[in-house]
């Protein structure tokens, strides 16, 4: 129960919801690949379609690496502005470009390039990489923030984050393919882009306005 007690703090629950919305995006692309890529490119072999997972996977790898380095740079910059004072929200500032620009761009490109059959196989691969990059770069700041926002209760906060994040992931796995079947892959990923933008708004809200919130 100590894990769920952390949800009463606005900083914690809003960051958890942001992670959940990003998790929805992550599992949307992973669970939809075989459904939309196989018929799009007439792939019949599981190995052939499986290779497509390398695109978002590479984005995850590069995004987590670059996101971590950018996060450290941004934190040091804000510390210099405050004569050495450090606050957890500095980590979130490093995620804003990724969650508000890079991730939505990659998500929209992926959905509509597949829907309109644009760019051969290259454009969906590139857009899946961009989406994966944006996801992990966004998670980089949020994951560290979860560990820093309530240091005395770090384990409970992080555990709660993953409960919310993977609950959203489960909803994505169960709901994205039916949504694609209902409204098409382009509009489905437009909806998912909206979820990602909402995550960005939550991150911006915490980063800019949570200084005096209960934590």
UniProtKB/TrEMBL annotation:
The chain crosses the membrane at residues 12-30, 50-75, 96-115, 121-142, 163-180, 186-207. GO terms for molecular function: transmembrane transporter activity. Its main location: membrane. The keyword Transmembrane applies. It is found in: Membrane. It is a multi-pass membrane protein. InterPro entries: MFS_dom, MFS_trans_sf. It comes from the Eukaryota. Gene3D superfamilies: MFS general substrate transporter like domains (1.20.1250.20). GO terms for cellular component: plasma membrane. Keywords: Glycoprotein, Membrane, Transmembrane, Transmembrane helix. PANTHER family: MAJOR FACILITATOR SUPERFAMILY, MAJOR FACILITATOR SUPERFAMILY (MFS) PROFILE DOMAIN-CONTAINING PROTEIN-RELATED. This is Major facilitator superfamily (MFS) profile domain-containing protein. It comes from Fusarium musae. The lineage of its organism: Eukaryota, Fungi, Dikarya, Ascomycota, Pezizomycotina.
């Amino acid at each position: 129960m100590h894990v769920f007690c952390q949800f009463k703090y606005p900083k914690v629950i809003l960051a958890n919801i942001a992670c959940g919305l990003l998790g929805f995006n992550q599992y949307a692309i992973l669970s939809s690949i075989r459904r939309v890529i196989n018929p799009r490119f007439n792939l019949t072999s599981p190995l052939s379609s499986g290779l497509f997972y390398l695109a978002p996977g590479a984005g995850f790898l590069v995004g987590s690496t670059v996101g971590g380095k950018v996060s450290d740079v941004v934190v040091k910059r804000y510390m210099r502005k405050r004569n050495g004072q450090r606050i957890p929200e500095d980590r979130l500032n490093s995620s804003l470009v990724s969650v508000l620009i890079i991730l939505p761009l990659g998500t929209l490109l992926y959905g509509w390039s597949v829907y309109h059959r644009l760019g051969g196989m290259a454009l969906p691969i590139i857009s899946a990489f961009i989406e994966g990059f944006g996801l992990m770069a966004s998670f980089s700041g949020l994951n560290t923030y979860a560990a820093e926002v309530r240091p005395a209760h770090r384990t409970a906060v992080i555990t709660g984050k993953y409960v919310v994040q993977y609950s959203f992931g489960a909803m994505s796995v169960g709901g994205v393919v039916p949504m694609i079947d209902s409204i098409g892959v382009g509009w489905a990923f437009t909806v998912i882009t909206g979820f990602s933008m909402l995550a960005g708004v939550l991150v911006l809200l915490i980063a800019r306005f949570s200084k005096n919130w209960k934590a």
